[in-house]
Amino acid sequence: MLQDPLFIVVAVACLAVAGILMVGIGGFAKGGDFNRKHANKVMRYRIGAQAVAIVLILVFVAFRRMGGQ
């Protein structure tokens, strides 16, 4: 499965979501000026990245069910 380029794209998308989430949680935990200025924007980025990741996962599953490898 590691040779499948679509799997690698899905994995990168999931890691991007996790990274954005960590930045958001870190900013929330630290508080202060960064959190006030960027908290909503970072979480909007996370939602967008998560939507893209979900679509890619669904495409990957559909492609694998059709027999593509």
Automatic annotation (TrEMBL):
Pfam families on file: HIG_1_N
Domain HIG1: 1-69
InterPro entries named among the record's database cross-references: Hypoxia_induced_domain (IPR007667)
Domain of life: Bacteria
Transit peptide as UniProt keyword: no
Keyword terms: Membrane, Transmembrane, Transmembrane helix
Transmembrane intervals: 6-25, 45-63
Entry annotated with the keyword Membrane: yes
Record protein name field: Twin transmembrane helix small protein
